[in-house]
Amino acid sequence: MSLQNRYDFLYLFDVKDGNPNGDPDAGNLPRIDAETGMGLVTDVCLKRKVRNFVQLTQQEKTGYKIFVKEKAILNNLIDESHEQEAVASKEKGDKTEAAKQWMCDNYFDVRTFGAVMSTGKNAGQVRGPIQLTFSRSIDPIVASEHSITRMAVTTEKESESQKGDNRTMGRKFTVPYGLYLCKGFISANLANQTGFGEEDLTLFWQSLEQMFDHDRSASRGEMSPRGLYIFKHSNELGNASAASLFDRVKVTKKPEVDVARSFDAYQVDVIENGLPEGIELIRKLG
């Protein structure tokens, strides 16, 4: 079933003693706004976790393959769309459009987030109906640096170069605690162009609620979803601006707390009274 409503949503998640999104150009330090000290998590980081969750739970089910995944050769996947009978039978001018539609029908992340697929035999470009902002921490974060040791070596040459035991030194960075806020937007108009429907939307919400439980690693510490506040509009174009709706959710550190080290240090206030006409607030989490 196609989407009939526009959605705007806020997503809260936190990290404890972990690195939520390291910057490879900065020695894998947690990403930080240099001027404010606020922590950042990129949109593609969260999209990766959604893709991984869908790949894990749907097991390559028809219509739920993942286009951007580990070790994928994208041009081969794009070329595959041109090998389909429904695409190959088209005239040259219609082939790209038919290939694009086939990719949307078969790959969840293409019809959800969009994709540039003009590098192979050309399946065009898709604007995805779901767009995410960078996540920003509520308060400034501190990146803690830790020295670690490795007791083993990888080659005999490396072993011979070590004096005494085989210990080698390394570095690891963590955020003691950070609460992050992400803003998201879902366009019904673009959803109808890509074929993103109600079942896809349900799976996306499920991903945001459960994806951290299937993305554990020592480097990421403890990451958890803390809030998912969805503003559903009564039509495709919307009934109010996203900014005015987002202002109804206030996340503040409790006055008696000096340094936040858990979600309990924060208070989330949601103004539910007086919502604009045609707006429904859905609280999935929080």
TrEMBL record:
Coiled coil: none
Pfam families hit by this protein: Cas_Cas7 (PF05107)
Top-level taxon in the UniProt lineage: Bacteria
GO terms of biological process kind: maintenance of CRISPR repeat elements
Name this polypeptide is given: CRISPR-associated protein, Csd2 family
Taxonomic source organism: Thalassolituus oleivorans MIL-1
